[in-house]
Design brief:
The chain is an alpha/beta fold. Helices cover about 30% and strands about 20% of the residues. Helix 4 runs antiparallel to helix 8, helix 6 crosses helix 7 and helix 10 packs parallel to helix 11. The longest helix is centred in the first third of the chain and has 27 residues.
Length: about 475
């Protein structure tokens, strides 16, 4: 058999890894949207590098849009097989893909209203009808269930601790009477996450596809997250009388922020300013998380004993309508606005940044990984002028970040995730979902840990296994 890497190859988005068996059966691991890759992003999302009609099955590790966001396009281009995922992933993927379709249609409409001479009309990658068809193909496989996809192909999910429903994928593929065990890490969460349980150990694998987003980093902040939020909000809202704009992924990051702010209220420290979650998707995702309390770690379970609503506190309001969202920009009152997307590449937060970035009273607070070419990545890099909706804006607002607020494990977490493996029995470890320099650094760490065969695939590269 062989495996081809059609996304998240020497970059962190667009996860797509295609296994092709000797009999022609094709298993696609994830089908994610490329995000924040600058002007080449649209071209990358237009071209899969394989024929969607020939893909037999799809296994989805989790519902983040860089892992599920091109599923509707795959279906629109002829994929008719089953999509296997956990029940929580299905719940989240439903709202995320619908939201993605809506954002694409809205952004295309906005851009087309502001077309300049010689520019072509924009089209969304897919519609809500494509999403509905995609959802009809989804099949739930729960954690630790030994599921037979077909004779000779078995699937098992273990908890990856990344977001609600996230899983590491374990396939046992038998060809010519010989079993081959393939593990795809998906995205690996942190040990000691604010909300979720830690990643699970898993059985020995022959081949491993391993994410490496933070393969050269340790998430060591000097202050706890609550303390950093308190300092930033007080300085911006109370002293400078400005706004704190927080681009945050609707799934995972937004709920962690709400949990931390709720913690400040429980301690009597929460600053008395309005707090807005300006993302209908975030509101839906928060409700889904409330419906899956089995994923909470012991610390959260203890908090639930004294506070039944761990994501709610005084001054919090969820914004639904576009009119209400626009009104936030017209209101000069100091406040905190949490809005998707996390890389500030799309959605309402991009409008909030555009309206507040050139005022030195305000703060743009980044709380997770940003692809370097994304708007969030350019802000973190310290660019003084950024392009938003084709216009340039001077960056006068303060840009801050809380690096420890990441759903991705650092290199110590990633090594711990692999600690149950005998490196001598791993025939090949492929690094995916990471920037190339970071992956090279992590490859060295892996070799020091005994993994002698580490490869860093290029985009569309194929390996015989």
């Amino acid at each position: 058999m062989n495996i081809a890497f059609h996304g998240a190859a020497r970059t962190v988005t667009g996860s797509k890894h295609l296994i092709t068996l000797k009999n022609g059966t094709q298993i696609l691991l994830d089908c994610g949207l490329f995000q924040g890759m600058g002007r080449v992003t649209d071209k990358l999302n237009d071209f899969f590098g394989f024929d969607a009609k020939k893909v037999t099955y799809l296994v989805l590790s989790h519902a983040h849009i860089d892992h599920c966001g091109l599923l509707p396009k795959l279906v629109a281009e002829g994929f008719e097989g089953k999509i296997f995922c956990t029940s929580a992933t299905m719940d989240l993927a439903r709202i995320l893909m619908m939201d993605s379709a809506k954002i694409q249609m809205q952004d295309a409409e906005f851009s087309n209203r502001h077309l300049r001479e010689g520019e072509e009309m924009e089209e969304p990658l897919y519609t809500d009808e494509d999403v509905t068809k995609t959802l009809s193909l989804m099949k739930i496989v729960e954690y630790e269930e030994d599921f037979e996809i077909e004779t000779g192909i078995r699937l098992r999910f273990t908890d990856a601790g990344h977001i609600l429903g996230s899983a590491a994928v374990h396939l046992t593929i038998t060809e010519d009477g010989k079993p081959t065990r393939i593990t795809f890490s998906g995205d690996v969460g942190r040990y000691g996450d604010l909300l979720l349980k830690s990643p699970q150990q898993f059985d020995q694998a022959d081949y491993i596809l391993m994410e490496s987003t933070y393969g050269d980093s340790l998430h060591k902040d000097l202050d706890p997250i609550e303390n950093m939020l308190l300092e930033i909000i007080n300085n911006t809202c109370k002293i400078k009388k400005g706004k704190v704009i927080i681009p945050a992924f609707a799934v995972g990051r937004t709920q962690e922020l709400l949990y931390a702010l709720n913690g400040l209220e429980l301690k009597g420290k929460l600053p008395d300013v309005p707090y807005y979650v300006d993302s209908p998707l975030s509101s839906k995702a928060t409700e889904i998380l409330k419906n899956h309390p089995e994923v909470y770690n012991n610390g959260v379970k203890e908090t639930l004993k004294v506070d039944h609503d761990i994501f709610g506190f005084k001054g919090l309001r969820f914004i639904e309508s576009v009119e209400e969202s626009k009104a936030l920009n017209a209101n000069p009152r100091p406040c905190v606005i949490i809005s998707a997307s996390g890389m500030a590449e799309a959605g309402r937060v991009k409008h909030h940044i555009r309206n507040n970035i050139s005022n030195q009273k305000n703060t743009i607070l980044m709380v997770g990984y940003c692809e370097p070419k994304s708007l969030g990545g350019r802000l973190i890099a310290g660019q003084k002028v950024v392009e938003i909706f084709r216009d340039e804006y001077e960056v006068k607002a303060e840009v801050r970040s809380i690096k420890s607020m990441s759903a991705h494990g650092d290199y110590e977490d990633l090594l711990q995730f692999l600690s149950g493996q005998d490196p001598a029995k791993v025939k090949q470890l492929f690094l995916v979902h990471g920037e190339y320099e970071v992956q090279q650094h992590f490859a060295g760490k892996l070799k020091d840990a005994g993994f002698k065969h580490v490869a860093i695939p290029e985009y569309h590269q194929v390996f015989e296994i």
